[in-house]
Design a protein that fits this description.
Strand order of the largest sheet: 2-1-3-4
Largest sheet: 4 strands, parallel
Oligomer: single chain
Radius of gyration: 18 Å
Number of helices: 9
Structural class: alpha/beta
Strand content: 5-15%
Shape: elongated
Length: about 210
């Protein structure tokens, strides 16, 4: 894989390399939102996304690009984006950026649903740890923590490999690194992919287990 270099031809290291990666993921999110502006994904747009990730392989190995990249590769493997592949890719990209219904309410973008555990599991509260990220239609963060405690669960403020559940609020937080997801989701998705017993669920699924 090519090594990212600065204007002097030297490789980026440490926090500079991390900053470049964050910038590139931001750029990818902007591209995806541009592609989805007309509510469609055509052959040329899919090829452009694939070309961008081929040229930015370091970013293509980061979440969520590492989920999108192989899907686009498979869709275009025969050189043609058929109607089923087009529909599948549209759904994938929409789940990545979270749609725009929250923006219509004056909020930031809806949360991403890309890393959500599928199929959604039955949620157990007793003795389980829960971390929350984003903004919640159900109530404040403190209220969500209280609902967990009432049911014998343990609220957590950070992502660890021992965490049981990450609950994603339906509305993206303005404090997130990117417009639709943040560091908690990125870290949780990475842990889950590495085999940790961490489950990522939506607010709607979590709230359905409160009654």
């Amino acid at each position: 894989m090519p090594v990212e270099k600065d204007e002097d031809g030297q490789p980026f290291r440490g926090f500079r390399s991390s900053a470049v990666s964050v910038r590139k993921i931001d750029e990818l999110m902007g591209i995806i939102k541009g592609v989805l502006a007309d509510g469609n994904v055509d052959q040329m747009e899919a090829e452009f996304l694939l070309d961008w990730m081929n040229c930015n392989r370091d970013a293509a190995e980061l979440w969520p690009a590492n989920v999108i990249y192989p899907r686009i590769q498979r869709a275009l493997a025969d050189g043609l984006l058929d109607s089923n592949e087009q529909k599948d890719l549209l759904g994938l990209l929409m789940s990545t950026v979270g749609g725009n219904t929250a923006q219509l309410r004056g909020e930031t973008s809806n949360s991403t649903s890309l890393p959500v555990t599928m199929p959604a599991p039955v949620i157990e509260f007793s003795g389980r740890t829960f971390c929350f990220t984003g903004k919640f239609n159900s109530g404040t963060r403190d209220w969500c923590h209280g609902q967990v405690s009432l049911r014998g669960g343990v609220p957590a403020d950070s992502i660890t490999k021992k965490l049981h559940y990450l609950v994603i609020g339906e509305i993206g937080s303005r404090d997130w690194l990117h417009s639709t997801f943040g560091a908690k989701i990125q870290k949780a998705a990475s842990y889950a992919a590495d085999g940790a017993g961490l489950v990522i669920v939506t607010e709607q699924h979590w709230a359905s287990h409160l009654t």
